[in-house]
Design a protein that fits this description.
CATH superfamily of the largest domain: P-loop containing nucleotide triphosphate hydrolases
Largest sheet: 6 strands, mixed
Strand order of the largest sheet: 6-7-8-3-9-10
Shape: globular
Helix content: 25-40%
Radius of gyration: 18 Å
Distance between the termini: 48 Å
CATH class of the largest domain: Alpha Beta
Number of strands: 10
Oligomer: single chain
Length: about 260
């Protein structure tokens, strides 16, 4: 990524500084427990994979981190500050960005205007419209949408909308980026490009939590993987450790493969 985009603050090596700390987070919808006593931390420059069967609570955890939902129990801290109960705009201004599983661009605005919105309301907003437009254009070029900048978002196909979703998140200048199934539906060539793009973002200093069902991609990108099942954390470790964990195998396949 070009240095002038400056989407992250580069501080320290991965594993040495705790960026995000989640302690005992629980969430209930009526009598249904969707998150139960979740502990999770993310270090500087780290990529953490968050996996689990459908309905395991992954997106709900993202929603509690970013303020779309308030946890019923537990705490969330970012850079040592308690952000539990913060509104989404406050979380965004603290340099936590996210993408959504279902892309929802401003369809009556151009791609450039979509990214300008993110650049205007994230952390460290630019001083004026000219700077906002320039930086938004740089981000579109980085994600491969420079040639589409003047098109309405409604004219984009699904893959292009995913790129725009990523560009809007990057425009907020996140130090922590939450990616929710950004690679779903990609063909092998597109998947390879997406993996390379995520590595470049991480190399620029951005820490990430990645929710993804493309196991080859998430295991290849992540230094550490956390597994949820029915709202509970059932495993955490390196990708190699996690894929051999019998609780994880049971969660995905319903039985011990050694049985």
């Amino acid at each position: 990524m070009e240095s002038q985009i400056s989407i992250a603050v580069d501080q320290g090596e991965a594993g040495q500084v705790s960026l995000l700390e989640i302690e005992g987070v629980s969430k209930w919808f009526g009598g249904l427990t969707v998150l139960s006593n979740i502990d999770l931390d993310v270090h500087e420059k780290e990529i953490v994979g968050l996996i689990g069967p459908n309905g395991s609570g992954k997106t709900t955890l993202f929603n509690t981190i970013t303020g779309s939902l308030t946890c019923d129990k537990g705490s969330i801290s970012f850079r040592g500050q308690d952000i539990t109960g913060f509104k989404p705009y406050q979380v965004c201004q603290k340099s936590i960005g996210r993408t959504f599983q279902l892309t929802k661009p401003f369809v009556r605005m151009t791609c450039l205007e979509n990214v300008m919105v993110g650049r205007s309301f994230g952390s460290d907003p630019p001083s004026g419209l000219k700077q906002t437009r320039r930086e938004a254009g740089e981000i579109l070029r980085f994600v491969g949408l420079e040639g589409k900048k003047d098109l309405l978002a409604s004219a984009l196909n699904l893959i292009e909308r995913k790129r725009l979703e990523l560009a809007r998140a990057l425009a907020t200048r996140p130090q922590l980026l939450l990616l929710d199934e950004i690679m779903a539906g990609l063909n092998p060539d597109e998947l390879k490009m997406a993996v390379n793009l995520i590595r470049q973002i991480n190399d620029s200093g951005v820490s990430m939590i990645i929710v993804e069902h493309v196991m080859k991609a998430v295991l290849g990108l992540s230094k550490r993987v956390v597994v949820l099942d029915a709202g509970r954390k059932i495993a955490e470790g390196t990708p190699h450790e996690v894929i051999q964990n019998e609780a994880v195998i049971r969660a995905y396949f319903g039985q011990d493969i050694h049985a």
